[in-house]
Amino acid sequence: MKKTTFILSIILISISLFSQHTFSLTLNEEDNEYNNYFLLPVETENEYYIIHKRSRFIDFSDYKRYSSILKISKEGEILNEWKLVNSDSSISINGFIINKDKVFVFAGERKNSFTVWELDASFNTIKEKKYVFSNFGNRIIYYLSPKYNFNKTNSYVTGSLYDTIAYHPKEAFIMKFSQEGDSLDTKIIQRDNEEFTSINIQSQNSFLKRDSITFSTIEGEMEHYIYIMNNNMEIIDSSSVSILGQYGEDMLNGEVEILSNDTIVYACDYQDDVYKTRLSTWDTNFNKLNEVLVGKQDSATYASSGNLEISKDGNIFLGQKLFPSSNPFPGPFNSWMVLSKFGKNLNLIWEKYYGGDCFYKLISITATEDGGCLLAGDKWFFDTDNSVRAYLLKVDEFGNGPASSINKQDKIKVSELIIYPNPSKSNLNIRTAVQRIGGEFKMYDISGKQVLMQQITQSITQVNTEHLPIGTYIYKYVHEGKEIESGKWIKE
After folding, report:
1. pTM of the prediction?
2. Chain-centroid distance, C-alpha 3
């Protein structure tokens, strides 16, 4: 692997009665043929740990991928790295857990097996062990995720066994490990033996005060289930959390978290006219308590797994990707990462938009002990060197990022109002965060003459700009007497 240059931007800010660190970190690989991304940050008392992945696909004969674990300080400085060095480029880190002075790294092999490495605090390898599902020779491991239970007496690893003949996940599994990383028990989960029935495990967590675990699945490519299992690997209860006929097979990835000892929160994506996120709460008897749909009609906004977290104050963080079109796939256009904070009753408290200067993709979020959040993913510089670089952003409890940046590629714009398309020929959309609705949007030509004024009374406002001449305009948004956002907009 070529030498990696780390570009850091670090700034400290103080809020409330305590200090929170915020920073922005971009990894710049010299070889831009590789895609780079961060995922699954984990916090310890003094550091953050995160997976870094690199992949290159030219054709099926030239596909390579590499992965590593990075240790990062609370200020955003990279302290150490453990690289998974293996001649088989299909092996890739899927997850890891940390217990005191040890790190256990789990890597799938695109076979019916996975490997666990035990590392010490300095990232020296103590031992490694392979686990093989010998009765499932035509399967490959799919979605491998380890997590400790709440008191770290055991860890549980969930995943799916993907059938290479039928081309879908046929079984889910959950494995119980000791604190020393030794396998104690395995449970295979199957709904039935029909040829095309699939079961794909999505996420798992543990109750805070109950000796039980929850995990979610997608079954038969349309039904979403939540399971409750006790510490002896026995399923206590399970129930569908789908609403057939309303969502059906358009439902996508899902994730479950524990909001309180008796409340489960669940997020999944579904495709209506555009992609949206369905956020719902359930009691432990699977009675639905509340539900909201998060998304707008003018864009593809969706979360996927890894982007639901419980904040330090007991509320809900939801991370999403915002594409200014109905196409949910990466493209050569600017996009945003979105972080929203919901109350326990699913009331939207605030939302922030990050980016808009290149194509951002949010992959996972982690709530931090200081009340803030880590956003991990990548950014695609499609209009410069066409590189994709791993990106990490730490924000405070209000969603605020670093106020400035030393390096240009680390800069991130945090917005509460965004406009798109930009440039545009006729109409523009003004998307306003819930906490900023009720202000005035004004636009000026290059001479300073005001050419447009719009009262903002809803989250999305469409403005007809056909009457404006081709050129560059300056916009400002004023809320409660304070200028909140400003920028340039181009009329083509």
Report:
1. 0.89
2. 28
